[in-house]
Amino acid sequence: MNYTSERLWTPSFIILTICNLMLFMGLQMTLSTLPAYAEGTLHASSVQVSLVTSLFALSAIASRLFSAKAMEKGGRNLLIFLGLAVSLAAVIGYYWAGNILALLLLRMLFGVGFGMASTAFPTMASDVIPIRRMGEGMGYFGLSTSLAMSAGPLIGLSLLQGPGFGSLLICTAAVLTLIVPLGYRLTTKLPAHHKEPANAPVSELKGGTFGRLFVPCVLNFLLAVSYGGLLGFLALFGKEIHLEHIAYFFLFNAVAIVVVRPLSGKIYDRFGPPALLIPGSLFIIAGLLLLSFASSTGALFPAAICYGIGFGSMQPALQTWMIQSVEPRQRGMANGMFFNSLDLGVALGSLILGSVALYTSYAVMYRYSTLAPLLLLLIYTVILLTSLYKRRSLAQEPSTSHPAAK
């Protein structure tokens, strides 16, 4: 059977991808700008600035614990529309946040709403993607997340530095509002679950559901640590090195992701996670090191390209790995754990790296942040080599046990 002939670009898949793009765009337009706003307007300290990112992430994690169970019970409509309503209320409330405490409380509220909606859309996408094209499909779907992660900060910082904070919030609210009519069509058209064929590929990790998801969760967490440093402190790093156009890093990063994402999904379907995670880690490390030594806009280009290639290839690989490790009814939980490990990495990365920057500089902080992808590379390499060794041992065992068979 030619599985590549199975239709991927259905109307439902396209709408889901657009909804996910706008949801993460709404997040990223504020995630990268609020730390700078908190420091410049509300006179927040370095620790308080890091809390703007980390408290949002922690509240999103708590929200997804509920959301995963609701998805298993068929509560996706509630998650989408309640999540969007709560997120919109928080964005509107930012305008009247006159002190850092109010801003932090609203960030937690936004995290609750975002956690609901961000669990529903990728789970629904994994239900409509042909199982044999899961890597390719999640690669394209994940492109919407990565594009938002790159274009959102660029747009947000441009609005904050140009028209101002009020215009930023109006645009963010408008983007989130546009999801509502599209989300309504999805919830009335899509089936509850996608039937998975009996011969569908499954993960080789042993143990229960949590055991199968643990390793990719840890790797995704380490990947997100360095990204927390970019989201929380890139604008402040630009001030430190007196570079006005630091937001161009996100533009160059987006270009690299657009190029690599379609290819990475096909590579995953053919060769599996090793073909993406190992070289991707090296690209991440190179990108962070180049960024830490950047002193001009031109120097941002190679740093952003390297980071974009690494992040754009690794993130969908980890998400697809997790989805294929569970039964179809548990995909909500798998997606919830994927985004929870992402948000936990961003939260702790922001706190830890913010503390490093407090005693050193943002440039030195980015050099220290390379330890996270380096640890990711070491852990995965050990796991991969151990797996290969066990396979060889099992393959040689019959010939050792039965010499007469030689």
Gist?
80% of the residues lie in helices and 0% in strands. It is an all-alpha fold and 406 residues long. Helix 3 runs parallel beside helix 5.
Structure, described:
The chain has 406 residues and is mainly alpha-helical. Helix content is 80%, strand content 0%. The chain has 15 helices and no strands. Helix 10 runs parallel beside helix 12. The chain starts with 10 loop residues before the first helix and ends in a 5-residue tail after the last helix.
Instruction: Give the number of helices.
Output: 15
Calculate the terminal CA-CA distance, rounded to whole Å.
37 Å
How would a textbook summarize the main sheet? none
Outline the low-pLDDT stretches: 1-5, 193-207
Structural class: mainly alpha
Q: What helical percentage do the residues reach?
A: over 70%
Rounded radius of gyration (Å): 21 Å
- pLDDT averaged over residues: 82
Oligomeric form: single chain
List the secondary-structure elements in sequence, H or E: HHHHHHHHHHHHHHH
Q: How large is the share of residues in beta strands?
A: under 5%
Question: Globular, elongated, flat, extended or rod-shaped: what is the shape?
Answer: globular
Q: Give me the count of strands.
A: 0
Task: Write the SSE topology.
Elements: H1 11-31, H2 34-40, H3 46-72, H4 76-94, H5 100-128, H6 134-161, H7 165-177, H8 179-189, H9 209-240, H10 248-271, H11 274-292, H12 297-323, H13 331-359, H14 362-368, H15 371-401
List keywords for this structure.
single chain; 406 residues; mainly alpha; 0% strand; disordered N terminus
